[in-house]
Amino acid sequence: MKTEELSYGLKLLFENFWIIRSDSPEDYAFLRRYQGELQKELRQRFGMNLIIRPQYIHVLKRPHHLDSWMGEVGFASQLDYSLFCCGMAYVEGLEAETPFMLDELIRDLELNIPEEIEIDWTNYNHRKSLIRVIKKMLELRIIENIQGEASGFEQSEANQEVLFATTILARAFLSRAPQSYIEYESFEEYWNAIQANRSQEGNQLLYQRFMMEPIIQRTKENEETFVRLRNYYHVMKDYIETATFFHFELYRDYAAFTLEQRDNWQDVFPSRKVVDEVLIQLATIVRKESFENTSYGLIELSYEKWSQLLTELQETYAQYWSKEFSEMSIQQLSTVLLERGGEWHLFEENEEQVIVKPVFGRLIAEMRREDDE
Predict the structure, then answer these.
(1) Which is the most buried residue in 194, 195, 233, 282, by most CB within 10 A?
(2) Each residue of 288-322: pLDDT tens digit?
(3) Predicted structure pTM score
(4) The domain containing residue 357 runs over which residues?
């Protein structure tokens, strides 16, 4: 197996939830061809297993730290997540390729939704929530639409004559827990059980984290992690830059896998979104200031100072922005930048301040007019 093939195989496995044979027959065939080499690599280097089935190929990816961006799957409310979980419980109880009507799913949801959540199908927002869940289940290929359109239920609670069927993937979507899910009284109890059952050694955990998290930030609690990273820097760098498309960057206060090019990747920073360009412009302004860092490379800004920086940003760069961004107020701009920056571990905020993380200092931009030499 050539290094280019190993790199492509790892990219397929880590950048996709699973590879479905009917959707991606060439990628599925590629992974089957090199399944022995990829399985060995995943076990030895990452402490992970390659799951191969006639219908799909999958690597179970469990995060080590929970972040809000991990739940961003197109849902808009707590009700969406609750309906999705109850919907998964319903389809997991059915055999593969079992047909069911929308009204059967609805009755089951009404019986099993947590008592503290009240469902009223005459409420448009509740119906729309269920439609988002059904669309996600269809997108994930957990169910398939046989007859009728679920979107009709969004318009009226009477439109329930829609036929679905479960797929072979329905029982494979939820990963197995150390014990039955119903045995856990809280998510914290479940999460602690997952953490206690990890069997990877130190470097395997780090390789996993780098493949699944934007960065690892140095904190008081993980000093030993950065000692390990410094000790194994050359070993990790040589492997990553040979076997994957990534480069390994290690600094005093953070470490990350980075890319030189952003093409053909599902989600990178900076992307071609205007908000990412604006963030890089903000980083350029922050770099020019003489801010005092904490011992962990953080810059702590009052909201007043943060607003001053955004005002300077707006005055300096608004001429290059899209109409949407150039017409934003400082408060609107702040909300958008903090949300996007939080997704990529660039910022944190609390009631008193905005905290700029050291990775933000890695960014810089220079804007020129097209007629400039």
Answers:
(1) 282
(2) 888 899 999 999 999 999 999 999 999 999 988 99
(3) 0.82
(4) 274-362
